[in-house]
Every structure is written in C-alpha cells, then in structure tokens.
Amino acid sequence: MKTYLTGIKPTGMVHLGNLLGAIRPAIDFSNNEDAAQFIYFIADYHAMTASRDPKEFHENVYSIAATWIALGLDTKKSIFYKQSDVKEIFELQWLLSCMTPKGDMNRAHSYKDKVQKNADEKRDTDYGVNMGLYSYPILMAADILMYDTNFVPVGKDQKQHVEIARSIAQRINEYFGEGTLIEPQEVLQENGAYIAGLDGRKMSKSYDNTIPLFVPEKKLRKLIMKIKTDSQPPEAPKDPNDSLIMDLYKLFANDEQVKSLTEWYQRGIGWGEAKQELFLAVNDYISKPRDEYNRLMDDKAYLDEVLRDGANRAREIATTTMDRVRKNMTGF
Ligand code: ADP
Ligand code: TRP
C-alpha cells in the first residue's frame, strides 16, 4: 500500500485559489482511491518561523482543520492531525539535522531568497532569518520520512524540499543500512492551473487579491463586485474567452449555466450582471460547506477530538518508525 502525504500551513483563511488548486483535488483523490493511505496534516510548527501572535495562530489552526472537514475530507479514512501533536517528528528532525550538510540549507530556496533580498536592500545577509526558517527543510523532511511516505503531492515551489528529504534519506541509508528510511517522490501539480485573483494576477495572500472561502454572503458579494473589468458599456457584446469572471464562473457552474452565460456575453451583458451571476454560482457552491465551517468553528471540542484521533493514529506509525531509525542509527 502506497502512502501519500502532504502538509498544509495554517496561515489564515483559505481562498478560492487554495480550494481549487490544492484542497478540492486532494480531498477528491483521497475519497476516490482505496488502494493507498492518505496523510494530510496541519503543519502548525512550520508556521512558527513567522508567527508571533498566539491567539491568531490558535485560530488559524482550527480554521484550517474546520475547512478541510467542512469540504468533505473523510477523517476516518485518511489520517488528519496537527504536526505538533506528534512529538516524535522533532526527535527525527534532530537525527536528520545531524546528517544534513549545512551547505544544503544554504542552497534551499526560501533561505536563499531571503539572503538575496537582504543583499539587494544592502542589509546584513542574515537579517530577519531565524534558525527555524533556516532549517525548515529538515523539519519538512521529518514530516515526510516519519511515515515511510512514497508520494508527496505539492506545488512546484516545494519540489526542492522533497528532493532534500530524499537526499537525506539516501545518505542515512548509506551510513546506517538500506531501509532505515524510505525515499519519497514528489508529485507535482500541473503548471498553468493558477486561479486568478481580483486584479487578474495569481490569486494569493501575498498580493492581497483573494476571495476568502468562507466569508459571510454579503462580504463575498462585495468582493466579487470588486473584480477588475474594462470600461465597455453594458450592451456591448463581450468575449467569454477573455474574461476573468467567466473563468471563475466555469469552475463553479454546470455546463448548462456556462452555456447560458456565454450566450448572454455574446448578446451583451453588463459587468455588474456578470458578477452577480458569478456570485450566485460561488455562493451556491460554498453555502453548505460555509454553514458546516461555521458550525465546526463553534465546536472546537469536536475539532480537538478529530485531531486527537488523527494524532493517535499518526503516532502509532511514528513510534514504529522511530524504533527502527533509533535502533539503526544509535543501537538503542
Ligand atoms: P498563497 O499564495 O495565498 O500564500 P499558499 O502558497 O499557502 O497560498 O498555497 C497553498 C496551496 O494552494 C498550494 O498548494 C498552492 O499551490 C495552492 N494555490 C495557492 N494559490 C493558488 C491559485 N491562485 N491557484 C491555484 N492554486 C493555488
Ligand atoms: N512547506 C509546505 C508549504 O509551505 C508545508 C509542508 C510542511 C509540507 N511539511 C510538509 C508539505 C510535508 C508536504 C509535505 O506549503
């Protein structure tokens, strides 16, 4: 049985880009595939490299948990937990650290980018870099290697991290025996599948152009009305193949609805009307999960229980792995 594992960083409310690019495919995949094991976890301690507000951190962790459950993740079938509940991860991280050349961390993208930015801005190269950020790829390697993971579905920005995990596993196997760790493989999401945001650029928290998934209906409508459009008059026929509104609409509406809106475009539609149609389609799609999300956010005890159950199942695997790794690496 192959194991698929991926981590989700709790950094604020999920947006439509995250939903369509990452969460929906991951949930569909795990619900439809019986011959594999799925481990989806909240990478909460990864977020500590930048988090300085415990209240916000705490809320973000629950928000991510509630989102995945509200969108239909089967938490019995897959293993869903938060990283910090599996203390073995941090023991493994240390053992991996001792087998990782410092140079590999110097070359890791997130650190290198920060150094470059500091150089560009004529600051000390390590300005704003903490050791958590620096050794982030080793913690991620521990997340992956702990469960004898075969496949890691990630975006291409994370490819290098999975390669680092693989190379650490190889080195450890060379020194301490084949089979000490399993070498993981990344599974890359296709390119070019980016969902555009309100201003037409890639929807991203970094651009502040997102449509967050579970904002109240009124706010959702207000945001959709903000989507950038041109100044064509309402009666002018519009190109359905060159429209951000239409692109988003297609992701939420059925074929018949798309056909009918396409015809309306060709006849001439006001942008306000097109946005209203988009709002109705998105709202229709997320209204049930949004109710469920809100219900779950008011029932933290339930979320705790789900995460605890997930952590117990994760720890069963983690303790077995650690017994093997510790034995091979230290003799104990
Ligand atoms: P953000 O850019 O808003 O900070 P993250 O980097 O946290 O988002 O992305 C979390 C997941 O969502 C990743 O798997 C990423 O590939 C996916 N994702 C983010 N933005 C988009 C988008 N606009 N279109 C498709 N997928 C996206
Ligand atoms: N680094 C990933 C990100 O920023 C999150 C993550 C942490 C992860 N541990 C992982 C992803 C293990 C895949 C496997 O998105």
Written account of the structure:
- By secondary structure, this protein is mostly helical.
- It has helices at 16-32, 44-47, 54-70, 88-97, 102-106, 109-120, 131-134, 136-145, 159-176, 217-225, 244-252, 255-267, 271-297, 300-330, and strands spanning 2-8, 36-42, 79-82, 151-154, 185-188.
- It has 14 helices and five strands.
- The longest helix has 31 residues, at 300-330.
- Bound molecules: adenosine-5'-diphosphate and tryptophan (TRP).
- Residues 11, 17-18, 20-22, 155, 193-195, 202-206 line the site of adenosine-5'-diphosphate (ADP).
Helices and strands in order, then pairings?
Layout: E1 2-8, H1 16-32, E2 36-42, H2 44-47, H3 54-70, E3 79-82, H4 88-97, H5 102-106, H6 109-120, H7 131-134, H8 136-145, E4 151-154, H9 159-176, E5 185-188, H10 217-225, H11 244-252, H12 255-267, H13 271-297, H14 300-330
Parallel strand pairs: 1-2, 2-3, 4-5
Describe this protein with a few key phrases.
globular, 332 residues, two-stranded parallel sheet, mainly alpha
Nearest-integer average pLDDT: 96
**Which molecules are bound besides the chains?**
adenosine-5'-diphosphate, tryptophan
CATH fold naming of the largest domain:
Rossmann fold
Strand content: 5-15%
Class of the largest domain in CATH?
Alpha Beta
Give helix and strand order, one letter per element, not per position: EHEHHEHHHHHEHEHHHHH
Spell out the CATH superfamily of the largest domain: HUPs
State the end-to-end CA separation. Answer: 29 Å
Number of domains: 2
What general outline do the C-alpha atoms trace?
Answer: globular
Strand order of the largest sheet: 1-2-3
Q: Structural class of the secondary structure composition? A: mainly alpha
User: How many helix segments?
Assistant: 14
Relative helix content: 55-70%
Poorly predicted runs of 5 or more residues: none
Number of β-strand runs: 5
CATH architecture of the largest domain: 3-Layer(aba) Sandwich
Rg (CA only): 22 Å
Biggest beta sheet summary: 3 strands, parallel
